[in-house]
Amino acid sequence: MKKVFVVLVVCMFFVSEAYAGEMGQSERTQLKEEIKKEVMEEIGKSKTELPAWTQRMKLSGLFEGEYRWMELRDVSDKDSDSTSDLYLRRLELGLEAGLTDWIKANAVLNSEFIGDDVNQGDEKMTVDEATMTFQKEDVPLYLIIGKRAQPFGIFENHLITDPMTQDAFETKRAGVTVGATGPIGLDVSATVYKGEEQMEHLVGSGLFEVTRAGEATDDVGSYILSVSILPMEDHLQFFVSYLSEPGRGKRNDTVSAAFSIAAPGLKALRFDGEYMKALKREIYEGSDEAFREGVFSLTASFEFNVRERHEIGGALFEEKRAHVIEEPIEAALRYERFDDDDLADKTASWSAKDRYSASVRYAFFHDAERELTAYAAVEYRYTNYRLDRSLKDVRAGNNQEMYARLGVSF
To answer: Whole-model pTM?
Structure first.
């Protein structure tokens, strides 16, 4: 483009100098216009020579700074003092490309907890999502291959912190999903992936403390079956999924059920609930029985000046962006409970019991044309813990936290 512009300027200059004495003013002006027209035609040709898919690329992102205060720095010490941190919670860059009318590529680079002493982010950008989606507009079948939060659980989130269901059961792994869509928002899918991702995530969630026994598997032996349906658009949606992983000694099977309801005649008031329950579990190290944990999460939210909703969920990049764009002013309350199936009592240990959260978010700037939104949010969170009697003089039975976030979605 710059080269063409230079050629245009040079040509017009030499025309002016070379023919200044031989042509009239009107003739020189006409010649300049003809040269300009030819150059602009060449510019148009250069644009049309680019592949069509380059015109269907979209770059987007999230940038969030966060402040956190905790009443107890370390809940394992009931005499611990308070602590506060200031850090970059999330930097995400997403690239979406419509390669054809039925092939879409998506990639998300992510870095989290930059400067956070508690979570110790490493300040490196990693590939958080990378998928290829194959689906024709009028064909119900689709295929998704790549890394993402696989379709077990919805994790709908109207607050700053992730729901307890996501803390426990999010399954982010490379896999292959085959699905089909149907009437009234029906979506049925089957996913396969390698490894024991959900169990590793659960054990590292901080909701209880155990050690896995045995050797990890190295085959593609994990799968997810998922169904969602939308009986009343914008008002009622249901989700059910089943996950099975090889496990160590026996398979680990988990089921999930969720709903999203908008009050009739009052779309701004929503209730989102999700329950996840272990059906089968491996036996942890040092124990002689399996513990089948469960998690329940219920959120009530009120959205002021709500815009049209396009996404539901909280695990994928576009779902997180959708909340701050489509729900500019929102207040939410959330109650969650973790059922450890008596693990804390029978292993002389501890586990999270229940959690109460309240949050307000306000998008103070929104430019629809440039797809730019700036927002601020605050959240209060209170967590109760189960303690074996041997730990009550050592560990804290509860903790309070405050969060404040300032973010930009673009």
So the answer is: 0.85
